Amino acid sequence: MSIRVRSVFAALVLGSLSCGPVSPAAVAAEIRHSSQYDISLGILPIATASFDSSFDGKDYKITGSFAAAGIARILTKTSAETTVTGRVLANRLQADRYNLVYHQGKRTRVYDVEYRNGDVAETTIKPEPKRNADNWIPVSDKDLHSVLDPLSGLIFPADAKICPNRLPIFDGESRLDLVLSPMGTKPFTADGFKGEAIVCEIRYQPKSGYRRGRDDIEYLKKTPMEIWFAKAQSANVYAPVYARIPTRIGQLYVTAVKYGG
Hints:
- The protein is 10% helix and 56% strand.
- The strands form two sheets. Strands 1, 2, 3, 4, 5, 6, 7, 9, 10, 11, 12, 14, 15 and 16 form a 14-stranded antiparallel sheet that branches. Strands 8-13 form a two-stranded antiparallel sheet.
- The longest helix has 13 residues.
């Protein structure tokens, strides 16, 4: 998985699909929740993801894991573990720290970001990636103001706008916008949920922290994705339950098999 596909994947899978059912009004006592997702390329299962969320007062913590499965695991052993901690505000979840540990074969890379009031205070990548200065678009200080982490950036209070919306994401290396547009509603069923989902078209707009001219970036820029949000039964938030991400080799589908159960 290339770094650019990893970036969008983190935002849509390791991030947007991590929410447990919680709202600011429901966090007087600690709430715990787990969710599970299947990931496929067309009809071919390629990965699974699971997430555990805990909310205690105004503080939250989300941990998640992703692992290749099926034939994809035979071809390349890819996995990731991710964590975000922060505070629950009236209209969003605001991260204090985001961490992603990404494994591909024998290689491991760690992304660590500290946020302060919505701005990036510090970011580290270990080991540092090799970059060609001729085509690398660096992240500016301006790019690091008023951004969301890719784990909790796609979680919405029930009264917030879901689509249309523009989400400024920083994933530890890249700054990107995810632009959501309304596409109506569709029924959705998973273990723990049955009801209507809000359907949004989602477009990827890279800002900085990537290599200019990459084929995968140009493809994602021109190709709309799709994401569905469902309201958790026991709380007042919307979070994704389904995503469709076009790739050059086929459609990537991410589907909640457990949500709120």
